[in-house]
Amino acid sequence: MKIISWNTRGLGSRKKRRVVKDFLRLENPDVVMIQETKKEECDRRFVGSIWTVRNKEWAVLPACGASGGILIIWDSNKLHSEEVVIGSFSVSVKFALDGCGPLWLSAVYGPNSPSLRKDFWMELLDIYGLSFPLWCVGGDFNVIRRSSEKLGGSSLTLSMKDFDDFIRECELLDPPLRNAPFTWSNMQENPVCKRLDRFLYSNEWEQSFPQNLQEVLPRRTSDYWPIVLETNPFKWGPTPFRFENMWLQHHNFKECFKSWWRGFQGTGWEGHKFMRKLQFVKANLKEWNKVSFGVLEERKKSILNEIANLDDFEQGGGLTPELLVQRALRKGELEELILREEIHWRQKARMKWVKEGDCNSRFFHKELENERGLMLNNPESIKEEILLYFEKLYSGLAGESWRVEGLDWSPISEESASRLDSPFSEEEIHKAIFQLDRDKAPGPDGFTMAVFQDCWDVIKEDLVKVFAEFHSSRIINQSTNASFIVLLPKKSMTKKISGFRPISLITSLYKIIAKVLSGRLRGVLHETIHSTQGAFVQGRQILDAVLIANEIVDEKRRSGEEGVVFKIDFEKAYDHVSWDFLDHVLEKKGFSPRWRKWMKGCLSTVSFAILVNGNAKGWVKASRGLRQGDPLSPFLFTLVADVLSRLLLRAEERNLLEGFRVGRNRTRVSHLQFADDTIFFSNTREEDLQTLKSLLLVFGHISGLKVNLDKSNIYGINLEQNHLSRLAELLDCKASGWPIPYLGLPLGGNPKTCGFWDPVVERISRRLDGWQKAFLSFGGRITLIQSCLTHMPCYFLSLFKIPASVAAKIERLQRDFLWSGVGEGKRDHLVSWDVVCKLKANGGLGFGKIALRNVALLGKWLWRYPREGSALWHKVILSIYGSHSNGWDANTIVRWSHRCPWKTIAQVFQEFSKFTRFVVGDGERIRFWEDLWWGDQPLGSQYPRLFRVVTDKNSPISSILGSTHPFSWNFNFRRNLSDPEIEEFEGLMRSLDCLHVSFSIPDARSWSLSSSGLFTVKSFFLALSHCSGSHPVFPTKCVWKSQVPFKVKSFVWLVAHKKVNTNDLLQLRRPYKALSPDICKLCMRNGESVDHFFLHCPLTMGLWHRLFQLAKMDWVPPRSISDILSINYNGFGLSERGIVLWQDACIALIWVVWRERNARIFEDKARNSVNLWDSIHFFASLWAFCSKVFKGTPLIALQLDWLAACNSFGVV
User: Fold this and answer.
1) What is the value of pTM for the model shown?
2) Residue 686 has what pLDDT?
3) Other C-beta atoms lying within 10 Å of the C-beta of residue 536
4) CB count, 10 Å around CB of 1049?
5) Rounded to the nearest 10 degrees, how much is the dihedral formed by the CA atoms of 812, 814, 817, 820?
6) pLDDT tens, 1041-1094?
7) Is 552 left (phi over 0), alpha (psi -120 to 50) or beta?
8) Is 395 left (phi over 0), alpha (psi -120 to 50) or beta?
9) Mind listing the pLDDT tens digit for each residue in 357-394?
10) Shortest CA distance to 884 belongs to which of 866, 905, 861?
11) What range(s) does the Reverse transcriptase domain occupy (predicted)?
């Protein structure tokens, strides 16, 4: 189905109607929605003037005078209308469509007046209720949803919030818009552009039409672009073999794999033999899969039918013990099948973006623009054009090799070079394999790393032989070095081939080889890479460069001096690297001939096949470039990019360039690099900028890393716009304004403003949109918040202090998502957010407050500062702020700019210092009296009388103890000590009797919150969280340590807080929707509260009695269900198995009775206590069976006798 929406801005003109008719004839949609017809009537003749009337039907919302009006037309041969609803702002049509149920389409034209928008949203909410579940609404909403939907951005308005609330309340999906970011412009010289038009649809629509694609079409008339929603997929052909990680769960897989692997006999190079073995295994796997798995859905359906038949027998009079066991076994099989299916989809999810892009098989749209500007619109032409493009991209130009002399290359040591060349060990190979992600998308061989990890014992001997051969021959055969290239869009609306980023999927064998080599190379890069490069060098982090850049820009602004920042863009950086130049760099940096030949072997045999929507096309032989996706590539690129730093430094030495000089030490910073992201800092002299431009051109010519000046930008500091424009013209780049997006963070912005944080809020909001299509349980939402939403802002929070209003906004998004789907209508926030944010041990979910997480992340800088004295960022901070009086930290008193990050970092020092202490080495840096190094307080606080009479309160330990044993005790008091002071002095000396000092090692700072003495953000965050608020007793062990599914744990957490929606609580929240508070649906007598329902209800109490009888225990029912969860009854003994099974049984009882209540309310189904106990017994047995402590115990043994299973010794 193809649906077009277009605001034509009137259809009164015959000329305009001809344009529209020609457009529709070319596009041939099934439905067209036109807004602003400005027509009070639309008859057959009028419709025929804008589209053919043959087999067409339509519905109209008349215009009000010369404004408004909606017309929706559809092809009656394809769509049969059943109902039409005309509103004040919309036209909705109910269609019958073959292959799915009735669906609704709504065409809307939103009011421009804010006073009418409330009525607009109310009307759409009414239509949502009418059209549920299959609904699509599209048209001109006359409002944007996000700030990025207006050119230049927009602050958040009430209208935007209302629009976003409407989408979330109706749980509609907002698909990405292709080809262009906006749908309207005012068509002026300096245009205002907005995205006012869109299609939204329900989850059910997405399920019925999973291949939806929304695009902007060319504008022929009007100031609006038409948009189209298509539901038909684009066919691309067969996809290559992919190993399914769920196969590893089959009980017989490893034996079969071992048999196939050892059954292949071959000769030749070890690498070639290894790849042929994988091909042999692949052929056997395909047949084995058909026999062992078949189609997952068909097997699952068969098991479900069998379980349903047994359930029917039970309803007819009960099941025999044999049938009960059979049903339990079938349920066990179902659980195993669901586990395999879950692994299958988890692996698919990891592959989907890499293999197919963000819209399944719609990675490339129906049209793709080639580099000559032609539009390609069929699969074959697109494939051919892509292949030609990459043949050209990876083909190097023939010419002489360039050499660079006269630079300080900082070569690696001979010892390091020798270590790089050493033979490969089995341990090294094993470590590399298990460091690789087991689920990552496979290359041409089709095998994921999970196979090698799980079958290490089978393949290790052959793999060691491959490495031994590579060590001596220095060659990688072509089949091992084959790659698939997948194309990821750099921007969502791109159509040009150059707008896609090529990512290489390499074979599993080459991935292992490259991982081992990259591990060795990583260990020596710090010896040869300049301090201005922050990427892929041990000890350097991405935020170092962002901190430096923000600090020196702020320093330059405050100084009043003129300066420029020049941010460059390398053209296809990885893809254009010259192999000859790389070899020259390796030689100059001291790498051995053997290592250089290994690198040549890894590069010279590379070949590519292009994956177009999962379909492999052609093979391309490369002669230049580094593969994105190859573990070696980032490190090799860093070596090449380092040459640019060396050239710049040489130019500075010769006074041809001058960077920024900052702080009291006048520390010089001319540039910063992070992989291919490079930024320059310069004065405004035209000679210097011309030198920089020439240097970049030379570097590009010799290395292949050419600068794309059209995409490069220059920014001025204390500089007039005219002057900046002249400098931009000199560099052939663009003059732009602040702030700069740099390494994913704003450079030169104000972190105190809300707009600074808009990218974070919008990213979280977009992620939430993507999750709407997933039907998540309460436990699933908790998991996503913990694993994703709480960490999404962390990159910003690691450098900048978040304003309280922004933190509240993010926490509101998290809170609303957590409780979405709970209750009806208005969603119930069952537990207060302050409780939710507490640590799990204190009764919360462990989300934590964003402000506390912010402090903990900023504290990492204070820990790193004294430990990284040689780092560039340390030197810059020291130069700008000076040193703290303790000799370890930077000055924490910052009285100027609110923009600089270090001011907010310094404000954390007071909290940070509470958890630090010093470890005495040579005593040179630790102050004897003022630092915390002995006892729980500084000695000056422990012995205040002595401290008052000390001459030098900042004396280091070494000046008092001396530098040898025994200690010389050089106390310098300004007068003779009084009797109380002498008494205190004697106490001090007794305390120091056991002091041991190691004069051979330096003093160190220790973190008191970790056993290792090393700082962790987590420990700081936990300490800050413990310091805030009260912490009631909570049954943490039973709730979170139990071996049950997470969604069940999450429910029990609510029960422990007494916050589940029992009737008494519903009566308080929404009395008009609650059942009578006097009725419990299980006993039909008493009122339903948490304690009554889960403990004191006669039916529930009978189940508890049965559980305790089975454990052979006498018990007195406690007052509260919380006591059941808190008391250690040890029902099945003190063994680990007994504890696990008892917890599982208690939780299973709570879970089953709650499900029974809901079944009685919503499905009008009821079971007796015997059937309920059967379910409790099954769930507890199954959960225990899946735990580690019962590994090796058959499920049937658990089901037959719990006590015996707890006392037996299975394989644990």
Assistant:
1) 0.80
2) 94
3) 20
4) 18
5) -60
6) 888 988 899 999 999 999 998 888 888 877 665 555 668 888 888 888 999 999
7) alpha
8) beta
9) 333 233 333 344 444 444 455 566 777 777 888 888 88
10) 866
11) 469-747
Round to whole Å and give the CA distance between 100 and 136.
14
Residue count of the chain: 1212
Asked whether the beta carbons of 30 and 103 are under 8 A apart, the reply is: no
Average pLDDT for residues 682-694, to the nearest whole number?
94
Q: Cα(1053)–Cα(1038) distance, rounded to whole angstroms?
A: 10
Spatial distance between the Cα atoms of 462 and 472, rounded to a whole number of angstroms:
16
Interhelix angle 508-522/593-604, nearest 10 degrees: 150
Strands 375-376 and 184-185: unpaired
* Cα(1212)–Cα(1200) distance, integer angstroms: 20
The CA dihedral of 871, 876, 878, 880, to the nearest 10 degrees, is: -170
Matching residue, tokens 């030098």: 952
62, 39 contact by CB (below 8 A): yes
Residues 6+ apart with CB under 8 A from 240: 444, 446, 484, 611, 614, 616
Q: CA gyration radius for the chain?
A: 35
For residues 882 and 866, give the distance between their C-alpha atoms in angstroms, rounded to a whole number.
Answer: 13
| Pairwise CA distance, residues 712 & 69, whole Å | 46
Give the whole-angstrom CA distance, residue 970 versus residue 1091. Answer: 70
Helical segments of 30-71, H only: 44-50
| pLDDT tens digits, one per residue of 309-348 | 776 666 555 667 777 777 777 766 666 666 556 555 555 5
Tokens at 1104, concatenated: 């508890």
Residues 6+ apart with CB under 8 A from 445: 275, 278, 279, 282, 507, 508, 509
CA distance 262 to 449: 19
pLDDT for 354 equals: 37
Q: Which residue has the tokens 């402000």?
A: 851
Nearest to residue 445, comparing CAs of 323, 278, 562? 278
* Beta-bridge partner residues of 7: 35
Following DSSP, what letter does each residue of 695-710 receive, concatenated? HHHHHHHHHS--B-GG
Cβ partners under 8 Å of residue 885, min gap 6: 954
pLDDT tens digits, one per residue of 1165-1182: 889 999 899 999 989 988
Reply yes or no on whether the pLDDT at 1185 is more than 90.
no
* Residue 253 CB partners (closer than 8 Å, separation 6+): 247
659 and 671 in contact (C-beta within 8 Å)?
yes
Residue 150 contacts residue 144 (beta carbons within 8 Å): yes
Structure tokens at 313: 């027998």
The whole-number average pLDDT for the span 611-637 is 85
* DSSP structure class, residue 84: E
What does the block give as tokens for 445? Answer: 């061989």
pLDDT at 350: 45
> Which residues does residue 1004 pair with via DSSP β-bridges, in sequence order?
919
Q: Locate tokens 């994921």: which residue?
A: 448
Kindly state the tokens that stand for 1115: 């018990």
* 959 three-class SS: helix
Residue type, 521: L
Tokens of 932: 């915390």
Torsion angle, alpha carbons of 1064, 1066, 1070, 1072, to 10 = -70
249-to-221, 337, 338, 1010 alpha-carbon distances in Å: 59, 10, 11, 38
What pLDDT is stored for residue 841 in this prediction? 87
In tens, the pLDDT along 754-776 reads: 989 999 998 898 888 767 545 67
Q: How far apart are CA 1059 and CA 828, in angstroms?
A: 10
Instruction: Provide the mean pLDDT of the chain.
Output: 86
**Helix (H), strand (E) at residue 772:** none
